[in-house]
Amino acid sequence: MFVLQNFIVALAKVIDLILVVYMWLIIARAVFSWVNADPYNKIVIFIYRVTEPVLRPVRRLLPGQNLGIDFSPVVVLLGIFFLRYFLVQTIIQLAGYL
């Protein structure tokens, strides 16, 4: 049974790591939008391609798109924090009960 527990804990930690990496990609994208980064840079292109599928639906749902400030990264970061503190911790505690 301890093998299943270790597997579930490892899965939770991998999910946590993926969420942390994605959080930093969202932060990098927000910084790039402030400093007007070179749109032809391969790193900038990669970050835009990875983050846009998550940011676009959030951007459509938020009101006040004509304000000139994009709040979708903040909403996505709050979602990532929620998933890290709720989902990952729940999975780890679930492994403890097995």
Can you offer a commentary on this structure?
It is a single chain. Helices cover 82% and strands 0% of the residues. The protein has 98 residues and is mostly helical. The protein has one domain. The mean pLDDT is 93.
Low-confidence spans: none
Shape: elongated
Strand content: under 5%
SSE string, helix = H, strand = E?
HHH
Can you give the helix content as a percent range?
A: over 70%
Number of helices: 3
Rounded to the nearest angstrom, the distance between the terminal CA atoms is 7 Å
Number of strands: 0
Structural domain count: 1
Give a brief outline of the structure:
With 98 residues, this protein is mostly helical. The protein has helices at 2-35, 42-61, 72-97.
List the helices and strands and how they pair.
Layout: H1 2-35, H2 42-61, H3 72-97
Entry keywords:
single chain; mainly alpha; elongated; 98 residues
